[in-house]
Amino acid sequence: MKDGIYILANDVVYNQLVALLNSIEVNAGNQFPVCVIPYDDRLEQVRQEVKARKNVEILEDAVSIAQWEDFSTEVWKAHPNAFNIWRERGNTGVYRMGMHRRFSGFDGPFERFIYLDADILVMNSLEPIFQRLNDYDFVVYDFQYKDPTHVYNVNSPKLLEVFNQENIDSQIFCAGLYASKKGIFDEERRNYLLSKLRSGEAEVFYINAPDQTILNYMVMRSGISSYNFSHHLSASEVTGCCVTSPHFEERDNVLYDKGNRLTYLHYIGLSSKLFNNLCAGENIDFPYRDLFLHYRYLHEPEKRPKLTGKPKPYNPPPSLATKVLRKLGLTY
Questions:
Q1: CA distances for 274 relative to 32, 280, 292, angstroms
Q2: What is the chain's mean pLDDT, rounded?
Q3: How many domains are there within the chain?
Q4: Helix or strand run (H / E) with residue 197
Q5: Which helix (H) or strand (E) holds 7?
Q6: What is the pTM (predicted TM-score) of this model?
Q7: In 3D, which of 72, 69, 56 has the Cα closest to residue 4?
Q8: Beta strands in 182-332 (DSSP E)
């Protein structure tokens, strides 16, 4: 299998996974096989869904998953205080280890692949992304470079020793969607990266997004060729991708940005609980909610929840009491 799509998921994000798979089917087609990388062992609903779809399977390669978990553990052992901070917060081991399992795509069944977080809806063809892999080893389409604070520890004096400012300003990316190739991070390259991290470079990591910071480091430090559509498309062609952008226009269950069709919508920052509670019938309002519901219940419209009453905002404004306490400096 040459080209395919990986999605990291478990039963916690089942509703989002179904919506994503349906959006791929409608807007990108069924020509690409899809492989679900298990976040953990909670897969009962996911397995039932996969059985119903001819082009979808679950990655069952326990050896590959273990290899990348071991690699991620070694990466974080090189950090001066990550484990201590996580332990103080009540986390044992590597924080959100399941997120690191996405790296299994680098030695999975596809020669070339696009990786997608489950909290995404595909809005357009994915062919242009695959085409860029003809010339580059790593392809993204986002604007994370505008905010490096969620990728690296920008307060670390080591950061500008590891990467120059131009790299930081241009090469940083969001790990929610990316395309790459099998074998690009082989054992030799992984060992090289570990040697650099153990020499002190691990302190540049942002420990609250552990998989994203590692992946950015892997791509940037190894020097593989990378491409970000947002740097190359003209101002009249480029589109946003985040749910935090309120100006997207919806037409026929597809979003447009100033007349241009989005490649994907990322519900970044929205908890899976919001989607699950909505699907359970709770009238919660959040950006592009009805678009999610459309794709979630595309093949079973009779199960779409009948929402009643006034919708509740997903991030309600603070109460008067909270405002008073904040003013007094007693809460945040």
A1: 29, 10, 12
A2: 95
A3: 1
A4: helix 187-198
A5: strand 3-9
A6: 0.93
A7: 56
A8: 226-228, 249-251, 254-257, 260-261, 264-266, 284-285, 312-313
